[in-house]
Amino acid sequence: MSAGELLLIIGPPAVGKMTVGRAVCAHTDFRLFHNHHTIEPLLEIFGFGTPPFVALNGEFRRRVIEEAAAAGTRLIFTFVWNVEDQDDADEVRRLVAPYVEAGLRVAFVELYADLPTRLERNVGEERIAEKKSKRDLAWSDAHVRELDAAYVMNTRPHRPTRADDVLADFPHLRLDNSRLTPAQAAAEITAWLGARRD
Q1: In the chain, what are the domain boundaries?
Q2: Measured by CB atoms within 10 angstroms of the end CB, which terminus of the chain is less buried, N or C?
Q3: pLDDT per position in the chain (198 positions), as tens?
Q4: What is the value of pTM for the model shown?
Q5: For the chain, what is the radius of gyration of the CA atoms?
Q6: Is 135 helix (H, G, I), strand (E, B) or coil?
Q7: CATH of domain 5-188
């Protein structure tokens, strides 16, 4: 098996996906591709959720992952997944397909934390610096709350979701990072990845 690998870090907004992903990259040869790498440039041209935004956002993500798989890159991709939505589950299948077809490892890390913790993290300096669209703090706070009310963004043990059909095919770590620093979460993730190779 080649050195290439895809690690998908999922979870609700402001749970720490990008920050934890960056911490994993700091101690490994993974490269970080976070969801706002495609969102922010498209927001400059199209409104969020418009048909051109949705089409290009999906296409750009798939193409980056295709090229990373072809190059044998160890890639972390972070994103929010509505785990009860079949379309989201189908899109995740499309995203992992290049790595699966190349015989490369694919694994999922699911971060979760309660809403008050996420609202506090939502105003963190690194988040705001990396994600221009989050700098309107009133809008960003309301957006996190709205998404939390509208969607299920974490799996629920003993209560199946559409995501479970996808996750059943891959190693999957659920990690409560409410009280973990990014470095601590990254250490747990890298230890888990290493144990899976032994």
Answers
A1: 5-188
A2: C
A3: 458 999 999 999 999 999 999 999 999 999 999 998 898 889 889 988 899 999 999 999 999 999 999 999 999 999 999 999 999 999 999 999 999 999 999 999 999 999 999 999 998 777 666 666 666 788 888 989 999 999 999 999 889 999 999 999 999 999 999 999 999 999 999 999 998 765
A4: 0.92
A5: 16
A6: coil
A7: 3.40.50.300
